[in-house]
Design brief:
The protein has helices at about 40-45, 95, 140, 145-155, 170-185, 195-205, 220-225, 245-250, 270-275, 290-300, 320-325, and strands spanning about 1-10, 10-15, 25-35, 60-70, 80-85, 85-90, 110, 120-125, 130, 165-170, 190, 210, 230-235, 250-260, 280-285, 310-315, 335-339. By secondary structure, the protein is α/β, with parallel strands linked by helices. A hairpin with a 2-residue loop joins strand 1 and strand 2. Bound molecules: zinc ion (2 copies).
Length: about 350
């Protein structure tokens, strides 16, 4: 089968590789659409050497059709349209035992620790597979993964009807989060980004207000907007080192900050607002059981993948697709590859 492989920093080739052989508890899926995510860009840059074995097949966001089913898998059949949770927890560690497989200490994810979905076929455990609801296209279903990240973080934020929510960063995860926050009943969703086209898109998918921190003093603006009170929840998706400080200064007393974006730099911030405001700062990593509810929300039209899909390209053009995202060209948000 054909698979896109990263050989080292920014070096990609589509190769002929052996098709995965399934075990009794696994299924083989023919991939129809596979989305490129920030994690794949890390693999592309060669930044995850401790986890990734090069040459590596990245990719974990996808939809496809089941073509082979292991003997022990009775709940899904050949020919069914599916998505799959790409996270493979160990099931035994302290986190798994506590019902939090998303923070498993032996966490393995497709496209990083095990071969990913930028290929014609992928094998996954049968219990990771979810049937795509009738009426939902394979193309839109391919975005269930980033939307599930957003659903998980909005649940962790505890968004309530009438909340004011700030979403920092309007990349793919931010744009999903803006939509989910709105659907969860936020009265006012304020979207922040430094790229104009992304703010336009945020507005299009439901943001009430958009702010470019390069153009205005975002903290001042948001304080004014809330009559000096501050906001109920901030969800940080950009990983920018100044976001936490910013989030704490715009937060209402007893507000909550959820960190989703990864920041690899050292972060300096004043911690006293956490005490003064009894602010909560919590992390949110991938998702636990969110896939089915996210599929439902997308299939009902409450969450809209379509505006986020800016490009669709054949797998063979993977090199160009990665360069578009890496160099931030063509206002790209989500690029889907078709194997
Ligand atoms: Zn992803
Ligand atoms: Zn575990």
């Amino acid at each position: 089968m054909k698979a896109l492989r990263v050989y080292g920093p920014k070096s990609i080739k589509v190769d002929e590789v052996v098709e995965p052989q399934i075990r009794d508890d696994e299924v083989l899926i023919k991939i129809k659409y596979a989305g490129i995510c920030g994690t794949d860009l890390h693999v592309y840059r060669g930044a995850m050497k401790d986890r990734v074995k090069y040459p590596a097949v990245p990719g974990h966001e996808f939809s496809g059709v089941v073509v082979k089913v292991g003997k022990e898998v009775s709940w899904i059949g050949e020919g069914e349209e599916v998505v799959a949770n790409p996270v493979h927890p160990c099931g035994r560690c302290v986190a798994c035992s506590a019902g939090k497989p998303n923070i498993c200490v032996n966490f393995k994810i497709l496209g990083v620790d095990i071969p990913g979905v930028f290929a014609e076929y992928v094998k996954v455990k049968g219990d990771k597979v979810y049937r795509i609801p009738k009426g939902l296209s394979l193309r839109n279903a391919a975005l269930v993964e980033p939307f599930s990240v957003a659903v998980h973080s909005c649940r962790k934020a505890g968004i309530e009807a009438g909340d004011t929510v700030v979403v920092i960063g309007q990349g793919p995860i931010g744009l999903c989060t803006t939509q989910v926050a709105k659907h969860y009943g936020a009265y006012n969703v304020v979207a922040l980004d430094v790229v104009r086209s992304r703010l336009d898109l945020a507005k299009k998918v439901g943001a009430d207000e958009v702010i470019n921190p390069l153009e205005v003093d975002a903290v001042k603006e948001i304080k004014e907007m809330t009559g000096g009170v501050g906001v109920d929840k901030v969800i940080e998706t950009s990983g920018h080192p100044q976001s936490l400080e910013q989030a704490l200064s715009i937060l209402k007393p007893a507000g909550r900050v959820v960190l989703v974006g990864l920041c690899f730099e050292e972060v300096k911030f004043h911690s006293y607002p956490i005490v003064y405001k009894e602010a909560e700062v919590v992390g949110s990593r991938v998702y636990v059981d969110e896939f089915p509810r996210t599929l439902n929300l997308i299939s009902k039209g409450y969450l809209k993948p379509e505006p986020l899909i800016t490009h669709e390209m054949p797998l063979i053009d993977g090199d160009r697709a990665f360069r578009i995202l890496e160099d931030r060209l063509e206002d790209a948000v989500k690029i889907l590859l078709r194997p």
